[in-house]
Amino acid sequence: MTNDSPIRWRDIARWVFAGVVGWLLGVLFFIHMPEFIPDIGGLGVGLLVNAFLSGIVIGAIQWISLKRTLPRPASWIFATGLGFLIAIVLFFKLTSLDIESTLLTSIILGLILGLSIGLLQTVSWHRHRGRVRWWTTSTVLGTIAGFLVVLLIESWPLLSQLVPSDGLIFLIVPALMNSLTGLALRYHMQLRPSVPY
Predict the structure, then answer these.
(1) Distance between CA atoms of 102 and 96, rounded to whole angstroms?
(2) Which of 9, 61, 79, 148 could bridge across to 22 with cysteines, CB 3.0–4.6 Å?
(3) Which domain range does residue 94 map to?
């Protein structure tokens, strides 16, 4: 993926792989870092710092696969960190609502995660490369699809016995989200191949 070349299928595969690895490491960081980041006076500051740093991990690993297309990492990594922080805050607000429908909860979680990260990443793309069509939409749709696939696996007795669903969400959601954003990026680059970036 060079600055002026179209996105190839192996670039999309690299992007999907980086997304899954980034999310796995970011979530592991989020789960295990509270031991090391103290909460200041019970205000939740430790959780916020932890969420932001976890997003930074995700964004940094994603950027590795984008570095030839998006050469300056700071805004991408910051946008992903801030988007993850916003998503975590909204997740905690959502859990206090006590929604009984798991289908509705899955859709809302996908919408929250996709919008918070997708919008901020779109701003980063726009600053460096111009408008990337469908980035936010593909992020939202991929995230919702990921949550719905996990819900389907968990609710279908045969699949739930064959596939352990404990960590499945951290594989399926980023894989589908990054697949759709990779296709959106490929589509965008094919529309504007002659425009120098």
Answers:
(1) 14
(2) 61
(3) 9-191
